[in-house]
Design brief:
Shape of chain B: globular
Number of helices of chain B: 18
Radius of gyration of chain B: 22 Å
Largest interface: A-B, 65 and 78 residues
Strand content of chain B: 5-15%
Helix content of chain A: 40-55%
Number of strands of chain B: 10
Largest sheet of chain A: 4 strands, mixed
Strand content of chain A: 5-15%
Number of strands of chain A: 4
Number of helices of chain A: 8
Strand order of the largest sheet of chain A: 2-1-3-4
Order of helices and strands of chain A: HHHHEHHEEEHH
Strand order of the largest sheet of chain B: 3-2-1-4
Helix content of chain B: 40-55%
Radius of gyration of chain A: 25 Å
Oligomer: heterodimer
Structural class of chain A: alpha+beta
């Protein structure tokens, strides 16, 4: 049985077709798998390998390098609190400690109900809103302790379900462009451009010659 | 004319939509480049602009383009993997003006004769990914990407590639590896430039998001107009990402060299100053790889060479302010922890050294350090970047490793007393 749903399999095939070497679709396919399943399962990696014509171990080999690709289950909401230097100066470490108390798990831990995974993250480029956090890569900040408590309440009650989809859903916009322009067409166009350039240069030198 | 280039449209409602972009002159530069200019003429304007790359290394954009090997297949890759701590300028550009980025990318693709273009965007930019993908979809529908753009006889495809969380992928050869579906391991140099061997082994230009976002303006107004802004090698404007202990942190676009650090920090319309009664203790310019500068350097203009002459770098344009209530040991420890976490692990000095330095710095901050730890930590730093010079000596494949000592060495040099207080009083004297 296939891992990807028919709808996602169609998206996967579009992704594979975007690159001169289809292995380039590996990371986008991992994101697609996580959007479907919340994390990157063994079955997903096997199917991605098949789509790319490589071994599942090669998919694992790449995926294990990247912080955003989770081969183990994570909570519905991945809460990443930044403690890098700008957030540190703004109280990021204290925010992380508070988050850990409120959620009842240490950084890296997942709550028993599977709702939250807490992470200590590196700079997410939101430093004018320090201390900041991301939930499933959506930004929140600056966060005082009670702002964080309200955020957790909003997530629990579903009030943010439109703006913060479950973990794994990254971009909700997909490519809807026409098929790729073939290299043959591009090379033919460039040949025409080159000829026009040569003709132009020849005309210019003739003109310059005429002036002498 | 607005004194802003890349952020001119930031703040306009729905600035990220094609309707708004077209209303404000969008895609006119692409039209002009494709229909009225040759690729060489576009390159000549960018060369004349003197624009230095906005990613961090500050290499002349026109010169980089001219180094591209003229093979039949060549690529353009835009580096949007903004992860240098406290750098948050590309984040602003991709969310607020994605079409400007797309247009600049297409013009560049034409100028260098790329056969396909990619925008590699940091995975953590969920909204940015949605905005740029929407912009690409809209631009295809508008006829600005794809087959025979605006009837010019020039075709190109543009693909958005998401990252997946790895600082090192901002290094251009690691980014290329990642784009090839591999672990983000920087490649061994030489070749020094992907312009010779890049994506899939083909010549490739890698340019930063802000660099690309300047290109439409340069084509519209000419390289000379761009070069008229700023001073010396620092032409045009730059986005300065100001953070840390200031009242109004933010990304501010300023004409290069037009303001000093002090003005950026204290101007009520910019940084807005510090909390009541506080003073600047240190500034980390150009990203956490850069040596720190002290309060005596606040009158330096924000220019490439000016900051380099003071022994640091303008780098990614980020500026972190530490006031006199912030702990230098703690800041340097946290920066080392970051490098330790983000080291890709290929080279021993970086992989092992960052861990040792982080542990020693942590125990000093926590109050269990000894005086000899200062020599030990400097010795470990010296093993990563022999001589502790700036710019650092290279012992590793990429510059991540030799960047590790900067903050630690700066902190010890500038605030040795503070280290000694941590050691003697067995703890951090600051409240946090």
């Amino acid at each position: 049985m296939s891992f990807f749903t028919p709808e996602n399999l169609e998206k996967a095939q579009v992704l594979v077709g975007l690159y001169p070497d289809k292995r380039s679709a590996l990371i986008p396919l991992c994101h697609l798998a996580q959007s479907q399943h919340g994390h990157l399962s063994k079955e997903a990696m096997e199917e991605i390998a098949e789509l790319l014509g490589i071994q599942p171990a090669e998919v694992m080999g790449t995926a294990s390098f990247y912080d955003m690709l989770h081969t183990e289950e994570v909570g519905k909401y991945l809460v990443g609190v930044c403690t890098n230097v700008a957030c540190l100066l703004g109280g990021g470490q204290e925010l992380l400690d508070h988050a850990s108390d409120v959620l009842g798990v240490p950084p890296g831990g997942t709550t028993e109900d599977g709702m939250f995974t807490l992470e200590e993250v590196e700079c997410v480029a939101h430093c004018d809103k320090a201390p900041c956090a991301q939930v499933n890569y959506r930004y929140f900040g600056p966060l005082a302790n009670d702002d964080f408590d309200n955020l957790v309440d909003d997530l629990k009650s579903g009030r943010l379900s439109d703006s913060v989809p479950h973990h794994g859903v990254l971009s909700r916009v997909f490519r809807d462009a026409p098929p790729m322009v073939s290299l043959e067409i591009i090379h033919e166009e460039r040949r025409v451009m080159d000829e026009a350039k040569k003709a132009r240069l020849a005309a210019q030198s003739q003109e310059a010659g005429g002036k002498q | 004319m607005s004194d802003k280039i890349v952020t001119a449209r930031v703040g306009i409602p729905n600035s990220y939509t094609i309707a708004s972009y077209l209303e404000h002159g969008g895609y006119q530069s692409l039209r002009k480049a494709l229909l009225e200019m040759t690729p060489e003429e576009v390159q000549a304007e960018v060369t004349a602009s003197g624009m230095l790359g906005r990613g961090g290394a500050g290499f002349e954009t026109g010169r980089k383009w001219s180094m591209l090997k003229q093979d039949p297949i060549r690529y353009l890759v835009v580096n949007g993997d903004e992860s240098e701590p406290s750098t948050f300028k590309d984040h602003l550009l991709v969310e607020n003006d994605p079409h400007q980025l797309v247009e600049g990318t297409l013009i560049t693709a034409y100028a260098i004769g790329a056969t396909r273009a990619f925008i590699y965007l940091r995975g953590e930019f969920a909204l940015g990914l949605e905005r740029v993908q929407t912009a690409i979809n809209e631009a295809y529908a508008h006829g600005a990407i794809g087959r025979n753009i605006f009837g010019s006889g020039f075709s190109i495809d543009l693909v958005l590639q998401p990252g997946a969380g790895a600082y090192i992928c901002g290094e251009e050869t690691a980014l290329i590896e990642s784009l090839e579906g591999k672990r983000g391991y920087p490649r061994i140099k030489p070749p020094y430039f992907p312009a010779v061997i890049g994506l899939y082994g083909a010549p490739t230009i890698v340019n930063n998001v802000e660099t690309m976002s300047n290109v439409p303006w340069i084509v519209a107004n000419g390289g000379k107009a761009f070069a008229a802004l700023g001073k010396g090698r620092s032409t045009g404007t730059r986005l300065f990402a100001l953070s840390g202990d200031v009242l109004r942190p933010g990304s501010y676009e300023l004409e290069m060299t037009s303001k000093t650090f002090r003005e950026l920090i204290y101007d009520p319309d910019l940084g807005g100053g510090l909390k009541e009664g506080r003073t600047v203790k240190a500034v980390i310019p150009g990203g956490v790889s850069a040596p720190w500068i002290g309060p005596d350097n606040l009158d330096l203009p924000l220019g490439q060479d000016e900051v380099a002459q003071a022994g640091s770098m303008l780098g990614s344009g980020s500026i972190i302010v530490l006031d006199d209530h912030s702990c230098a040991v703690r800041a340097a420890w946290r920066i080392t922890k970051f490098f330790n976490r983000e080291s890709c692990g290929q080279c021993t000095p970086c992989r092992e050294g960052s861990g040792w330095i982080e542990k020693i710095m942590h125990r000093i901050e926590m109050g269990s350090g000894t005086e000899s730890d200062l020599d030990l930590v400097l010795d470990a730093c010296d093993n990563i970047a022999p001589g502790l010079t700036w710019p650092p000596q290279q012992t590793t494949i990429c510059v991540l490793g030799p960047s590790i000592p900067s903050s630690v060495v700066s902190a010890i040099k500038m605030f040795r007393d503070e280290f000694m207080i941590h050691i003697k009083e067995e703890g951090c004297p600051f409240v946090h």
